[in-house]
Amino acid sequence: MKSLKKLVLRALFLGVGWSLASGAYAQFYVGLGVGQAHASVPSLNATVDGIPVTASLSKDNDTSYKIYGGYQFTKNWGVEAGYNDLGNSYNVDFTIGGLPGNGSVKVQNWYIAGTGTLPLTDQFSIFGKLGAVANHSSLGNVCVSGVCVPGGSDNHTDVLLGAGVQFAFTRNWAAVLEYEDYGKVSSDDIWGTGGSGSAKANSWYVSAKYSF
Q1: Burial group, residue 59, by CB count within 10 angstroms (0-12, 13-18, 19+)
Q2: Structural domain boundaries in the chain
Q3: Span 124-145, pLDDT tens digits
Q4: pTM for the full model?
Q5: Dihedral angle of Cα 143, 144, 145, 147, to the nearest 10 degrees
Q6: Which terminus in the chain has less CB density within 10 A, N or C?
């Protein structure tokens, strides 16, 4: 993943230098969006130290928010960085030795990506993005039969994939509809039982974008 980050940063520096040298199209932008995120976690049905354990997500969608900014070297190529808050109400229900329990998961991340844009008209365009994303998931209080203890957290870096459409109302303002996939947001053994799988997340957004 470090090599991917280096490629994105290299493209940024080369693009800035080319734009300054040629006087080509260049534009900064910022945006703020809201949407719906989806998290997926593999279900667990295992016996740990002789105790039967089951677990699964009972709520896997939540409202998400994002703030982002970027730089267009040309009308077709650019770079973007942003922060996503994917919500804190992904509910986990489980049983340990027949005792019921529950907890909630919060997911957030930072990303940097190269962008490619294809204008279809003066107002409509489609775009894609490819980059690196640093995911962070944290488990709130874990409660079993009314007894609660603090949960832990997990970090995972993965590939960011995204695509969307943009409609420009004016030279400066545009509306954006996009989809982003953040890959794995946890380790490959989220339940700690040995190869139990990883949590993954993605989100749809509608955002307002201002270019200057």
Answers
A1: middle
A2: 2-211
A3: 999 999 999 999 998 888 888 8
A4: 0.83
A5: -50
A6: C
Which residue from 176, 159, 153, 183 is spatially nearest to 88, judged by alpha carbons? 153
Closest CA to 65 of 166, 212, 204, 211: 204
**What is the spatial distance between Cα 191 and Cα 55, in angstroms, rounded to a whole number?**
9
Q: Which residue has the higher pLDDT, 35 or 2?
A: 35
pLDDT at position 20 is: 45
Is 14 strand, coil or helix? helix
| 11: enclosing H helix or E strand | helix 2-22
Cβ atoms within 10 Å, residue 119:
14
| Chain Cα centroid distance, residue 196 | 22
Cα gap 74→125, rounded to integer Å: 14
pLDDT in tens, 164-211: 999 999 999 999 999 999 999 988 887 777 778 888 999 999 999 999
Helix (H) or strand (E) holding 150: none
Element (H, E) at 141: none
Q: What share of the chain is helix, strand, coil (3-state, %, to 5)?
A: 10, 65, 25
Return the closest-CA partner of residue 128 out of 114, 144, 140. 114
Instruction: Give the side-chain half-sphere CA count within 13 A for 109.
Output: 31
**Tokens linked to 155:** 């970090």
